[in-house]
Design a protein that fits this description.
Blueprint (H helix, E strand, L loop, with lengths): L4 H15 L5 H14 L1 H18 L9 H12 L12 H13 L2 H25 L7
Length: 137
Amino acid sequence: MYASLESTINDVVYKIVKKGIFDNKGEIDNILGVLSNNGVYAMWVYVKSKKKEANKEKNLGEEEKDLMKELRPLFEKVFPDKFNGQNNNDYENEYEKFFREIAEDLPTLIFVKDILERTLTYIRYHVKALDVKALED
């Protein structure tokens, strides 16, 4: 089990970068921008729409690149009562419910936003440190 929230974030960031979830620098910046300017739910909707676009362009046999699926261990750590630990195929409905519930409590919503901003910022720094192709303009 993870010792702290920070170590969980680090582990999730490493896995996201290793799987190559982001194809370009702009996508990281776009998600961060949507999150910062429009909030947590807007980020979720944006990521969902990008996933649908990516699935249309996906080659047969190519691994699906799904940011929200990779973020799940982080949310399970912070909100174990809202995520039951089962990776089911209907996780989009689970996320919809989750984002509705956290919106009812302002401190929780701000906390989630902070966690997501930190995670996305770490992803950006990690990718840059590795000099991965994703940061080439």
